[in-house]
UniProtKB/TrEMBL annotation:
Protein's gene: trm5
GO terms, biological process: tRNA N1-guanine methylation
Protein name: Wybutosine (YW) biosynthesis enzyme, Trm5 methyltransferase
Annotated InterPro entries: MeTrfase_TRM5/TYW2, SAM-dependent_MTases_sf, TRM5-TYW2-like_MTfase, TRM5/TYW2-like_N, Trm5a/b_N
Cross-referenced CDD domains: AdoMet_MTases (cd02440)
Domain SAM-dependent methyltransferase TRM5/TYW2-type, chain residue ranges per copy: 79-326
Recorded GO MF terms: tRNA methyltransferase activity
Length: 327
């Protein structure tokens, strides 16, 4: 079957396969092939493959897979993987139990199956879970070469944003000063530090900050990371004019913190502003809010506006990459 592949010299094959596997990019239903001194590694999402790799399309044989949940159920269930946890979002408890049992019996390397029992709620952005398999909501998630320990019962983390996080981090250059205003367990901040940035992250969730510090140690960047538990508005004065880059991943209410972001911004600063808006005008409200907060002290340039994902019917999670230049 035709498949998108990364082609690398044979001597770099295993190193590349491991790197792609850590980012969950290796396709499991197609064989890896060696031919003419090169290794062809099939990938699930060519758009998410780092630019350093060569992408090609070629015919590869299908792989005989171990028994998966769909083989047991007779249909393809919907679920997410986060470390050794499978996450369901089922309204019907009987269907949730059926899927959980199939996951448990399958060849998936899973310790826990959870079903979402509430929407994200409160300032700390946590939700309730129904534990269907296992007895722990703690796991270690691997993403683009970084490890993140977390407890889903205590912190917010979305594996769906991996590609978006990687897009932002790829823009960072060594020596930048990056401020993550709603850092969580560090999925933006820690990869930024691995690229040579000095990073400050805040979060009102103290458990998230504990994991953030642990994850900085896990990934060997604790010397470049400062993790602060508390409201960013209470510590911003200490970092006034400090940031070369600011991440504002709080899409339901980031506009309430724009005055603080402007206070943090240095002479030339890139702002990654996340928002949720209706399809009729997904980017306009965010741009207007940024301009209202930053002008005339800064010249405001929208360098990129794009849709991250669909959030709800007719609503989208979007990001504005905006450059603030001191006027």
């Amino acid at each position: 079957m035709d498949a998108h592949c990364v082609r690398v010299p044979r001597e770099r094959g295993e190193e590349t396969r491991r790197s792609l596997a850590e980012a969950d990019l290796v396709a499991e239903d197609v064989e890896i092939v060696a031919e003419d001194g090169a290794i062809y590694i099939p990938v699930v999402d060519p758009d998410a493959v780092p630019e350093e790799y060569e992408l090609v399309t070629r015919d590869l044989p299908e792989r005989s897979l171990p028994e998966m949940p769909a083989d047991i159920l007779g249909y393809e269930p919907s679920y997410e993987r986060l470390g050794d946890v499978v996450i369901l979002d089922e309204d019907d408890p009987e269907r949730a139990r059926e899927i959980a049992d199939a996951v448990d019996e399958s060849a998936l390397p899973v310790e826990t199956v959870l079903d979402r029992a509430s929407k994200i709620k409160g300032e700390q952005r946590v939700r309730d879970w129904t534990v269907l398999v296992g007895d722990s909501t703690e796991t270690v998630h691997r993403e683009y070469g970084c490890e993140f320990a977390l407890d889903l019962d205590a912190v917010y983390f979305s594996p769906r944003l991996a590609t978006e996080r990687h897009r932002v981090v790829e823009q960072i250059t060594p020596g930048e000063q990056v401020f993550d205003m709603f850092a969580g367990v560090g999925p933006f901040a820690i990869p930024a530090a691995t690229r040579g940035a000095t990073v400050v992250g805040t979060d009102i969730n103290e458990r998230a900050i504990e994991y953030f510090r642990e994850n900085a140690r896990r990934n060997g960047v604790e010397q470049r990371v400062t993790a602060i538990a508390g409201d960013i508005r209470e510590v911003a004065a200490e970092y006034s004019g400090w940031a070369d880059r600011i991440v504002m991943n709080l899409p339901h209410s980031a506009d309430e913190f724009l005055d603080t972001a402007v206070e943090l911004a240095g002479e030339d600063c890139v702002l990654h502003y996340y928002d949720i808006q209706h399809e009729d005008d997904p980017y306009g409200p965010g741009e207007r809010a940024i301009r209202a907060a930053a002008e005339p002290a800064y010249d405001v340039t929208v360098e990129r506006a794009h849709t991250v994902r669909s959030y709800a019917p007719h609503e989208f999670n979007v990001c504005l990459d905006v450059r603030l230049t001191r006027a």
